[in-house]
Write a structure and sequence with these properties.
Layout (H helix, E strand, L loop, with lengths): L10 H8 L3 H8 L7 H14 L5 H8 L4 E7 L4 H16 L3 E7 L4 H13 L4 E5 L3 H8 L7 E4 L11 E3 L3 H14 L5 E5 L5 H16 L5 E4 L4 H12 L8 E4 L2 H13 L9 E6 L12 E4 L2 H16 L12 E3 L8
Parallel strand pairs: 1-2, 1-3, 3-4, 4-5, 6-7, 6-8, 8-9, 9-10
Antiparallel strand pairs: 10-11
Organism: Ancrocorticia populi
GO molecular function: DNA-binding transcription factor activity; transcription cis-regulatory region binding
Protein name: LacI family transcriptional regulator
């Protein structure tokens, strides 16, 4: 059958191509049951052939759902937050939802409140907050949000007050990183943490310190800022004649580990012969560091999928699965036995 398409294909055109009524097409488009599988397949094929796009306003009137999910984040180019956002967006599209992003530059309470209210004004079905810092959780507690809300990033223990949370298990990841160094026989361990006001930094630090304590190790701790520049400056300090080079280092993200590695190379420190280094995040470049970096991998694809599944469960008045996503250790060439 040859059908001449208008500039914006209509539901009637889809129905004509599929050989069904426009009411049947409407049931498929709006997710209603009662359509035979073979009929549904014909309609979906016709939608693809005609290039039909559902009208979002009409969808809202029919289903009482807008197809929008609000996501609020503090502006950051760091690997974790940007990967989390990308994973949520991918998962949303697979569920036929559109993300409405509010990227807060400074993270002030006024900005946060305006971002939430902007989402609600556009009838989002749920709000997801990528909460990198404690202050965002404090702002959230002070607001009344009448749609399902999930805090993405922190663990439940880090977010009091019964808020829904979804995360990669940061403490477990840090535990695996430090335990790997201990299993290699290292006792002189330095921890390079993230900024103290970042929730993930706190959780990674807690997991690392607890693992050291269980092994009777008192680590040296430096608070970093997530940047390779900080790692580089710390590496220069540790290789200074007045510095003290440890046997092993756990850097709370891969960028600080990269800076450390660069400084050590410049000062003739061999890795992993002189010092072992473990990072966190498993950025795409980690396997191309020299040496390739042993690090903790975060499965952001699974995180994004789980966040969307939890939001949809809340929308259907079901109990969501908020179990943290497990981290994994990728052992490469930057660690060796003491």
């Amino acid at each position: 059958m040859v059908v001449t398409h208008s500039a914006r294909p209509s539901m009637a055109e889809v129905a004509k191509v599929a050989g069904v009524s426009h009411q049947t097409v409407s049931r498929v488009i709006n997710g209603f049951p009662g359509v035979r599988p073979d009929t549904r397949e014909r309609i979906e094929a016709a939608i693809k052939e005609t290039g039909y796009r559902r009208n979002s306003a009409a969808r809202t009137l029919v289903t009482r759902r807008s197809g929008l999910i609000g996501v609020i984040a503090v502006g950051s180019f760091l690997y974790g937050p940007t990967s989390t956002l990308a994973a949520i967006d991918e998962a949303a599209r697979k569920h036929d939802y559109t993300i409405m992003l509010s990227n807060i530059r400074e993270g002030s309470e006024t900005e946060f409140r305006n971002a939430v209210e902007s989402c609600l004004d556009r009838a989002v079905e749920a709000v997801l907050i990528i909460a990198t810092r404690e202050v965002l959780v404090e702002y959230l507690h002070a607001m009344q949000i009448d749609v399902p809300t999930i805090v993405v990033g922190p663990s439940q223990d880090s977010v009091p007050g019964g808020l829904n949370t979804m995360c990669v298990d940061q403490e477990q990841g840090a535990h695996m990183a430090v335990q790997h160094l201990i299993d290699l026989g290292h006792r002189d361990i330095t921890l390079v943490t993230g900024p103290h006001n970042w929730i993930e930094a706190q959780e990674r630090c807690e997991g690392a310190k607890r693992t050291c304590a269980e092994a009777g190790i008192k680590p040296t701790i430096y608070e970093g800022d997530w940047s390779a520049a900080f790692g580089y400056q710390l590496g220069k300090k540790l290789t200074d004649p007045e510095g003290s080079l440890p046997e092993a280092i756990f850097a709370a993200n891969d960028h600080m580990a990269l800076g450390l590695i660069a400084a050590f190379h410049e000062n003739g420190i061999k890795l992993p012969e002189d010092v072992s280094i473990v990072g966190f995040d498993d950025v795409p470049e980690a396997s191309f560091y020299t040496p390739s970096l042993t690090t903790i991998h975060q499965d952001f694809t699974t995180l994004g999928r789980r966040v969307l599944e939890a939001a949809l469960a809340l929308l259907d008045d079901e109990r969501p699965d908020m179990t943290p996503v497990a981290a994994t250790l990728n052992v490469r060439a930057s660690t060796a036995r003491a």
